[in-house]
Structures are given as structure tokens and as C-alpha cells.
From TrEMBL:
Start and end residues of each stretch annotated as Disordered: 1-104
GO cellular component: eukaryotic translation initiation factor 3 complex
The protein's name in its UniProt record: Putative translation initiation factor eif3 p35 subunit
Regions of compositional bias (Basic and acidic residues) in chain numbering: 64-86, 95-104
Keywords: Cytoplasm, Initiation factor, Protein biosynthesis
InterPro entries, sorted: eIF3-like_dom_sf (IPR023194), eIF3j (IPR013906)
Domain of life (superkingdom): Eukaryota
Region forming the signal peptide: none
Record lineage: Eukaryota, Metazoa, Ecdysozoa, Arthropoda, Chelicerata
A single MF term (Gene Ontology): translation initiation factor activity
Keyword Nucleus: no
Length: 207
């Protein structure tokens, strides 16, 4: 009987981490008390502020900025010329003053055309002033146009007749106001003339 005895076989138990064939189980955690890590929420993207459209500048501001820029450039140019130019006689100074005045009038005319959207081929009659700035630009354009003819022998008669025509429908007080303005200009020119004569006489005495 002892020869027929067979010892019981002990089947090897599968390891805890092994899966049976066909099983669909999740991976076993190393520590059963570990909890699933919670994913940190993604912070919301910061809202990009909308860019406000640029406001258009009013026409009067654009004109003023152009005038200031041109005036500044003209002053800088005049300062450089005065530093480089030798001393002038009173006659030369007067001629230089007239030249600068002519350049300023031409610049004013060009600025007036730009303000009204006119080209070099458009006439002054196309200017349609409405605001105070519009009338200022028209004045500069007219002054630049008229003074370009001041060398003509007919210029003074033309101005005399023009002022008379312009004052026909004006009130007496307005005509007096214009007369006072012209008298003030005349007095200032007389003073300048006296200074020029005095300087010329003093220079002749020294020579």
C-alpha cells in the first residue's frame, strides 16, 4: 500500500498582480489606500481687451497741428539762415523780410487748399467757408493770391477799389473798425521806416 501512495499536489497560486486569461481588470495599485490623483483644473484664459478704434481728429485740430509744425520748421530754418548770414543793410533786411513774408503767404495758401481738399488746379472760388477756421484759411489764401500781384503798378488802385466795394454794404461802425486797423498798420510801418533811416544815417556817419 505504501508503494501506491501519491503525495497531494499543491498548485501554485497565481500572484496577486497576475491577471487571469480573458480578465479585463484595472491595474492593481501598489497601495490600496492610494486615491486617484485629481487633475488640477486648467485656469481660464485671460480675456484680451478689445482695442478701441482710434478716434478721428477734427479738421480744425489737423489744420492747427499742420500750422504749428510748419511754423516751427520755418522758425528753425530762419534761425539757421540768420546765424549763417552776415550783417545786412536796412534795405537788405527789408527785402529779406518781404521774402520771408512771401514764403509764409505761399505756405498759408497751400495749407488752405489742403484744408478744403483742393488741388493746385482748383481755384479759390471753390472754397466754401463755414466755420471760423474756414474763414481764416480763406483769408490766408486770398492774401497769398493778392500779394503775389503787389509789384504791379495797378495793385494800389485795385486794392482801393476792392476795399470800397467790400465796404458798400457794411455798417458804419464796421467800416470805422477796418479804418482803425489800417491806421494801426500804417503807424507801425512809419515807425519801422524811421528806424531804418536812422540806422542808415548812423552807418554813413561812421564811414
Amino acid at each position: 500500500e505504501k508503494d501506491d501512495y501519491e503525495p497531494p499536489s499543491f498548485a501554485k497560486k497565481p500572484a496577486a498582480g497576475d491577471r487571469w486569461e480573458g480578465e479585463d481588470e484595472e491595474d492593481v495599485k501598489d497601495n490600496w489606500d492610494d486615491e486617484d490623483e485629481e487633475k488640477e483644473p486648467t485656469p481660464p484664459a485671460e480675456a484680451v481687451p478689445a482695442v478701441a478704434p482710434k478716434k478721428k481728429k477734427p479738421l480744425s485740430q489737423i489744420i492747427q497741428e499742420k500750422e504749428e509744425r510748419r511754423r516751427r520748421e520755418a522758425e528753425e530754418k530762419r534761425a539757421r539762415e540768420e546765424e549763417e548770414r552776415p550783417a545786412l543793410t536796412p534795405e537788405e533786411e527789408q527785402a529779406e523780410k518781404l521774402r520771408r513774408q512771401r514764403m509764409q503767404e505761399e505756405a498759408d495758401l497751400q495749407l488752405a487748399k489742403e484744408a478744403f481738399g483742393l488741388t493746385d488746379t482748383d481755384g479759390i472760388e471753390n472754397l466754401q467757408p463755414v466755420t471760423r477756421d474756414d474763414f481764416d484759411n480763406l483769408r490766408k489764401a486770398l492774401a497769398a493770391k493778392l500779394t503775389s500781384c503787389e509789384k504791379s503798378p495797378h495793385y494800389m488802385n485795385f486794392l482801393d477799389d476792392l476795399l470800397r466795394d467790400l465796404s458798400l454794404n457794411m455798417e458804419p461802425e464796421d467800416v470805422k473798425r477796418l479804418s482803425s486797423s489800417l491806421n494801426a498798420v500804417a503807424n507801425e510801418k512809419v515807425k519801422q521806416q524811421k528806424v531804418s533811416i536812422t540806422c542808415a544815417s548812423f552807418k554813413n556817419l561812421r564811414t
